[in-house]
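To whoever is on call:

I kicked off a structure prediction for a single chain this morning and the downstream step that reads the tokens threw a length-mismatch warning. I double-checked the sequence; it's 182 residues and nothing unusual in it as far as I can see. Pasting both halves so you can look.
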Amino acid sequence: MPFSHKRRRERCLRSGELERAREAARHAARSKPQSPGPWIILGIVALEQGDHSGRIEIENGLKLEAKDSFDVWSKVAGHMYLLQPIKALDQLHLLTMEFPDDANAWFHRALCELRSGQISAARNSIDRCRDLNPLDGWGDWLHAEIALAESRFKVTESILESSQLRLNEDVALAMRTSSLWS
């Protein structure tokens, strides 16, 4: 399947265009039924729309072998939706080894490490992410979350103050960050 079709499914899902993402994933599932990506996206769309049977589609997609980095990213998303950060980490280790300059992979690795209680590893991963993309507000937010988890309150406050403009550019990010101010 051409890379642009894979990106379209992902872009539609991320932007909340769930019906478009579902149609693109259905088309992909018909043309490549052994690829995990379409099944996982179908499951995520179903869950986002309140249909708990989406979990079954995600679980079935996770059983399939990843053929490319899109499939690996799909598996990461599937594990994250099923609240399985340690299993997502297995996939993220592969991605960060194969693409060591991918800030997005390091960000998600740090997030999963934090969610699984590996705070020191999370700090190392977010540092790598921020080295690659120092002006990313999401990286600032996760950096502050990790500092808070380490009880480094002054560092958390400093991160929030120094990156306030970036943190407020995105509504979802601003809402997540607001809980760190208290």
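Update from on-call: the warning came from a stale cache, not from the record. Cleared it. Sanity check on the structure: Residues 18-31 form the longest helix (14 residues).
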